[in-house]
Fold this sequence. Notes:
By secondary structure, this protein is α+β, with helices and mostly antiparallel strands. It is 42% helix and 22% strand. The chain has 4 helices and 4 strands. It has helices at 3-9, 11-37, 61-67, 91-95; strands at residues 48-54, 72-76, 80-87, 102-105. It is elongated.
Amino acid sequence: MSIAADVLRSPRSRVVLGAVAAWALFQLWLTVAAPGKISPQLAGTSDKVNVQIELPFTPERFHVLAFQQYGRVSGTDEHSIELRGVKRTDLNAVARPYWVTAVGPIKEGG
């Protein structure tokens, strides 16, 4: 008998493999969904853009700190965070968290 056959036969191993597969699928879904959250209005040639990150809830300190690695937080609103100086190459990373619903240009006068 091989080790792989023994591992697949064990109920504990099946649970662990199932959990690893679920985690991998979730990570894949986050990666695939991120570009769809980015507004086409952000298309352009500049190296950096100013974005407004929409959330389904009021942002807390954790969310603000999480986005500070991508740019300068200039404010928050009821359901959004304004982030300035974001590199275009980081837009997918900004949109990747599951709690982000949309990433678009900063709304003026809001």
